[in-house]
Amino acid sequence: MSARIWKFLSSAKLAAILIASLAALLVLSFLVPQKDIMPADQMAEWLALSPALAWVVLTLSLDHIFTSWWFLVLMGLLALNLTLCTVKRIQRRGRMHSAAPTSTPEHAWRAHVPLGPDALVDELRQVVPSAVVAESESGVTLAIRRGDAGFWGSVLMHAGLIAIMVGGVVSAATTFRGEMLLAEGQSVPDAAGSYLSVSALPRMGAGFGDFTVGMKRMTAEYEGNTVVDAVALMHVTEGGAEKDVKARVNYPLKVAGKSFLLQNSGHAVQLTVLSPERQILFDSFVNLANASPQGFTDTVNAGDLAVRLTSRPDASVPLNEPVRRSLAMMDPVVQVELYRNAQPLGAGAIKPGGSQDFEGYTVVIGDVRLWTRFLVRADKGLRIIYLAFAMIVVGIVLRFVDPDRHGFAAVSPAGGGSEVAVWGRTRYSRVPGREQRRLMNRIQTLKEREAE
Fold this sequence. Notes:
By secondary structure, this protein is an alpha+beta fold. It contains 9 helices and 21 strands. It folds into 5 domains: 3-94; 96-147 and 403-451, 2-Layer Sandwich (TATA-Binding Protein); 151-172 and 379-400; 174-265, no CATH class; 268-368, no CATH class.
């Protein structure tokens, strides 16, 4: 790498340009709808408002800014810039030589000591043994440098920032997001067809794994009429091994790098509809999607029939009263309303295992179970980002606990003794550090001892 390219890539100017560009993208992401946030139908409507704008948005990937290739390029350049800046700082610190400065500043603390320069230097070196001694024509200078732990804390903080960028790139390349709905007793493979929706597929690696996941049962604990805990007993088969694992809110099931986070639940009804000729018009579990005060409801179409189902957990509660504990299956019952060509054929309440005829049509309720919706996520960059935040926190602590401190003591012969000047600075002020104060105290002690 040539010196000119190295200088440009490691410059603060490039860092400022990249940071400003990323900030501009952040603002742009608020102005342009992002497809990972806006529903697909609404996104399509927005793009349809202006074909020219839609072309610009889609061509420049502005509908998914934070996973676009050019955003990743900017992040990569910023990571490279920060890496080179850190390397330059390490090299510069390694080359720092604590030699005598060219002049003594006006704010230096000065004193005359009736000791020769060599004797005085020996005394001062006992106070700060790590001081570096440099000789010149004008005398001897002791140089002190502290803050190594703080410096490496700064390096650690920079490494954490770089790791966050790397983690962000890994996340953008490996993120999976989808929704899966499982009823009690249901088990499905990790495949595209098993998901309600998949909003993000990884750009690198496989999106689906070689395992199956199912829900054996779902339980909910109530205090009054409020759910205080919901637990799904899950069954996982992976690599020939089987296991039962509990999943609950904030404690997801983790399988093959994917996390299954428990969301909401409802009723699943096993429904069979027979025609007057005893032909099966419908035979499947129905996951009732809509929660209402009277229970979970949904409508199923079977040929020219429409079957409206309302599942309630307790048959002893009248239909006109709201459900109190919708996930507590005490004595479930399903209210069925049957329509043909929008004309009502009748209504009735059917318990699991029961059936009812509606003008020749037979509706059978086999079972009532609970279903649970899971948010499924995978992101291989999260661990990198968590580690990066820990690095940054530790680096900041070290930086403030042990800031850079530089001190000097210049000794020169004068009037049968020595003239000494002590000065120094910390990262944030010119207040002498503790090493300089110790030198000043020793000098004061030497003056008093020689004066006696």
